[in-house]
Amino acid sequence: MTIDLSGANNIKNLTKTVYAVIVTYDDRFLYVKRIANAILQSSIGKIVIVVNKTTPEMLESLREMESKTEKIEIIYKVDNLGSAIGFGMGIKLALSHRDCDFIWLLDDDTLSEPAMLQILLNKWQNLSQIHNPSDFV
User: Fold this and answer.
1) Edge to edge, what strands does the sheet with 72-77 contain?
2) What is the CATH number of the domain that holds 30?
3) How many domains does one find in the chain?
4) Under a CB-based contact definition with an 8 Å cutoff, are residues 36 and 103 in contact?
C-alpha cells in the first residue's frame, strides 16, 4: 500500500492535542511496542493502551514501558471484554483529560507511518476550511 506523505509538513497554526487509543489483548507486546514507538515520534499528546486480559510477562513489559514516559497511560482489564468495550474505555479516559481535542483509534496490529498524525491533522484542517468543524462530530 502506498501512502501519500506529501501533505505531512503543511500544517499551519494548528495546535490540537491528539490522544491515541490502542486496544490489545493476550501476549501482543511487540505489536504494541512497535506502534507506540512510532506514535511517540509524532506530536501525540498521550497514548492510552487498553489491555484486555494478558500474560504476566506482557503486563510486566507494559508497566516498564509506561514508567519510561508520561505520554503512555494503560488500562489493565482482567478479562477480554472485546475491542468495542476496550475502545469505549480508552475513549472515556482520553476525554477525561481537558487537553484532548482529537482521539486517534488504533488496533494493536496497525502500522503507522511516522508522519501519519500530521497528515491526518492536515486533512482535518483542509476540511475545516471548507465545512464547519462541528459537522464532523
Assistant:
1) 72-77, 46-54, 18-26, 102-107
2) 3.90.550.10
3) 1
4) no
Q: Is residue 3, in this structure, part of any structural domain at all?
A: no
Is residue 103 situated within a structural domain? yes
| Domain contains 9 | no
* Residue 8 belongs to some domain of the structure: no
Q: What is the pLDDT along the chain (137 residues), one digit of tens a residue?
A: 333 444 444 444 457 899 999 999 988 999 999 999 988 888 899 999 999 988 889 999 999 999 999 999 999 999 998 999 999 999 999 999 999 999 999 988 887 777 888 888 888 888 878 877 666 65
Domain around 32: 18-126
